[in-house]
């Protein structure tokens, strides 16, 4: 349908002006009634965070999200845009998207007074009705609210003329959603400038006798440490948010895996097929969960889900590099590839250790704990008695980056007990997938103190303890 191009056509079309919160509420009601999700791509919050956010939208509340880094706060904030109407009319030329029926700027009011029903309209897509600012200590009132534009003054306008104003980010998001990330980092005197936006729904610029009754949904994010302990967010501002929603890290290992698989950038290598076994993905996710409960990791800093995603990508990358060096076309990560995660993990967790230089050892210990936990989740001690007995009788197994998948297949061909155990982890007959299964079994038995391991560089040798 052709969009009305002037105010008269808009009136004839029957278009109804609604506040942004009512607009979002109506669209949310439609989606909920149809059984459709309000927020796409957000995993793990179905029974905790999302119901609270849906309530806030239905109630028309401004929202502040509290949570550590990597808890999808920004993603949820940005996804709120999808609850806006796809297109919205405004007075053409208006810097603050003036409502054709209820203009607030002097420019729009003067234009309607002059042109009447011939006032030209433009249409804004919902994507441009979203504004976002990362709060930094140097953020000023001029950035958020506005300031006198010296160029407009130089053009001949009087300082008392409202048209000399240069609007800040908040007015420019009129009839939309404005988000402030890390809100407590704003200087307290700047936070005061947001009080009117949240309660009286207007802004006041400099010494002008002008008020702009803005229509804005304000959403913010904050780290709980800043919000509750440091007292860097002023109490009157906290009081003005209608909803305070606490986010969290994935509660289940499966949820963490789902997020990693969803967010990881696929490694597209021509001529190669890449498969990440379920048990290796579980090791990655379990490692993150162990870090989040470890007393040796600074929990106030948090352990972001981004670590899980980057570790997932790094695991695939190291396995790909190894396969290319061995001239193999089927890429399957193994336990021996986990050493590559030291680089992708170290910068994402803060180790609290009395001794200097032990960070690497602590990360390695937590990786070993993740491997052991996944191993014990798949095998009980009695399941692998025959495998341990065969090693006690003299079997020796070599693993590492420079050991090709065919060598693991040869190992299984001569040892039925180990082959039977590997079949419990994968039903594939591909040598690369079997090699991955074999390494998990051998490392799990070593960490269970049932096999000895001698490691030298990229190679490892497993022997019986007898």
Walk me through what this model shows.
The structure is a single chain. By secondary structure, the protein is of the alpha/beta class. The protein folds into two domains: 7-246, Rossmann fold; 253-463, no CATH class. The protein contains 20 helices and 16 strands. Strands 4-7-10-1-11 form a five-stranded parallel beta sheet. It has a three-stranded antiparallel beta sheet with strand order 14-16-15, covered by helices on one side. A hairpin with a 2-residue loop joins β15 and β16. The radius of gyration is 30 Å and the shape is elongated. The termini are far apart. 37% of the residues are buried. The model has no long low-confidence stretch (mean pLDDT 89).
Q: What value does the Rg take, in angstroms?
A: 30 Å
Q: Name the strands of the widest sheet in spatial order.
A: 4-7-10-1-11
Distance, first to last CA: 82 Å
What's the tally of helices? 20
Give the biggest sheet.
5 strands, parallel
Q: Spans with pLDDT under 50 lasting ≥5 residues? A: none
Assigned CATH class of the largest domain: Alpha Beta
Q: Can you tag this structure with a few keywords?
A:
single chain; 2 domains; 20 helices; Rossmann fold; elongated; alpha/beta; five-stranded parallel sheet; 466 residues
What is the structure about, briefly put?
With 466 residues, this protein is of the alpha/beta class.
Task: Please render the helix and strand layout as text.
Elements: H1 7-13, H2 20-33, H3 49-59, E1 63-66, H4 73-79, E2 87-91, H5 106-115, E3 121-125, E4 130-134, H6 141-144, E5 146-148, H7 150-154, E6 165-167, E7 176-181, H8 188-192, H9 195-198, E8 203-204, E9 211-212, E10 216-222, H10 224-229, H11 235-240, E11 243-246, H12 253-263, E12 273-274, H13 278-293, H14 305-325, E13 330-331, H15 341-346, H16 359-378, H17 385-392, E14 397-400, H18 405-413, H19 416-425, H20 431-447, E15 452-456, E16 459-463
Parallel strand pairs: 1-10, 1-11, 4-7, 7-10, 12-13
Antiparallel strand pairs: 2-3, 5-6, 8-9, 14-16, 15-16
């Amino acid at each position: 349908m052709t969009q009305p191009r002037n105010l008269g056509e808009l009136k004839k079309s029957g278009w109804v002006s609604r506040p942004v919160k009512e607009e979002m509420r109506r669209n949310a009601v439609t989606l909920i009634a149809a059984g459709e999700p309000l927020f796409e791509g957000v995993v793990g919050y179905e029974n905790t965070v999302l119901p609270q956010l849906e309530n806030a939208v239905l109630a028309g509340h401004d929202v502040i999200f509290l949570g550590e880094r990597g808890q999808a706060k920004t993603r949820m904030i940005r996804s709120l845009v999808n609850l806006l109407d796809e297109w919205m009319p405004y007075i053409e030329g208006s810097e603050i998207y003036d409502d054709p029926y209820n203009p607030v700027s002097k420019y729009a009011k003067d234009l309607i007074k002059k042109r009447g029903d011939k006032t030209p309209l433009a249409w804004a897509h919902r994507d441009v009705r979203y504004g976002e600012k990362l709060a930094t200590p140097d953020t000023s009132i001029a950035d958020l609210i506005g300031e006198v534009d010296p160029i407009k003054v130089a053009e001949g306008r009087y300082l008392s003329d409202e048209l000399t104003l240069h609007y800040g980010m908040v007015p420019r998001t009129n009839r939309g959603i404005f988000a402030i990330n890390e809100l407590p980092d704003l200087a307290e005197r700047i936070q005061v400038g947001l009080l009117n936006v949240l309660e009286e729904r207007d802004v006041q610029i400099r010494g002008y006798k002008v008020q702009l009754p803005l229509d804005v949904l304000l959403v913010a994010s904050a780290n709980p440490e800043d919000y509750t302990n440091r007292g860097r967010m002023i109490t009157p501002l906290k009081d003005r948010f209608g909803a305070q929603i606490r986010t969290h890290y994935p509660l289940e290992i499966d949820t963490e895996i789902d997020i990693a698989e969803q967010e990881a950038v696929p490694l597209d290598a021509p001529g190669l097929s890449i498969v990440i076994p379920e048990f290796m993905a579980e090791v990655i996710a379990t490692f993150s969960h162990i870090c989040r409960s470890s007393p040796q990791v600074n929990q106030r800093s948090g352990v972001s889900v981004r670590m899980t995603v980057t570790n997932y990508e790094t695991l695939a990358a190291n396995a790909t590099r190894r396969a290319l060096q061995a001239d193999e076309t089927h890429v399957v990560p193994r336990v021996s590839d986990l050493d590559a995660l030291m680089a992708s993990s170290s910068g994402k967790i803060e180790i609290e250790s009395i001794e200097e230089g032990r960070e690497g050892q602590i990360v390695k210990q937590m990786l070993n704990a993740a491997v052991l936990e996944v191993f014990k989740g798949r095998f009980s001690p009695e399941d692998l008695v025959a495998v341990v007995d065969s090693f006690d009788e003299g079997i020796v197994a070599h693993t590492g980056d420079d050991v090709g998948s065919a060598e693991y297949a040869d190992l299984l061909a001569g040892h039925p007990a180990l082959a039977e155990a590997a079949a419990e982890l994968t039903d594939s007959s591909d040598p690369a997938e079997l090699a991955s299964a074999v390494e998990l079994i051998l490392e799990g038995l070593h960490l269970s103190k049932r096999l000895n391991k001698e490691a030298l560089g990229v190679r490892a040798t497993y022997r019986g303890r007898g």
